[in-house]
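Troubleshooting: if your tokenizer reports a length mismatch, compare your output against this known-good record of 272 residues.
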Amino acid sequence: MKKARKIFTYIFSIAFAAIWIFPVLWLLISSFKDGSELFRYPLTFLPESPTWENYKVALEQFDFIRYTANTAFVTIIATVSTILMSCMCGYGLAKYKYKWINILFFALLATTMLPTEVIMRPSFTILYKLGLYDSLWGCIIPTVGTMTGVFMMRQFFITVPNELMESARIDGANEGVIFAKIMLPICKSQIAVLAILSFRWRWNDYIWPLLSLRSPEKYTLQLALRTLSGAEAVNWTVLLAASVLSMIPVLIVFIIFNKQIMSSNMSSGVKG
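Known-good structure output:
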């Protein structure tokens, strides 16, 4: 019975993974097809005559380097800021005992129930009045505060024994030293997970750049991809190639932090 259940679990997991992987695989393979083959019926999975021309056109006609640099600037600054803010807020909400701390936490948690559309207009109004419209900083500042990161770090810091902080205070460490030299080093796995989530959110963000950027030279990569869609025709093969190129940085970040993610998952399983 256990063996049959194990086999069923493997089959289900493989089938589920295939459903998620197939669209990405189709995107990758189709980026090597020419326009006529892409829309040929019946459809073919593998390209008959693979070509790099789509990538060449994407790099030459599509200002990929500029848009990638803009996106990297927004993503890196926003990710680092998100990590610092989430760690500090999570630490404060978990370790400082005041009557209003829990009220503040649940009030912040309640904001996650609001649809993005509800806060979009007031956020844009503030952005405009601060003079951040048509600025890359206008894509960064509104996205720095994320309750997902605060909640994640708070739940981790709750599991850290208070005796660790008390021992450091007895040794003369102030709150800044405790946070920077004791708390941050022991939550590297959680920071790695948050870094990947934040990096992916910012790199793939479309709505905020669409609202806050007007000048084409300041476009982020996801916003600039729409320029490949003309009013009358869409160069789908070049669009597919540019989309594949835009996925590479996220994949690299995941590979770099993969060890930390696995470590975080294992520690979560042990605590559970």
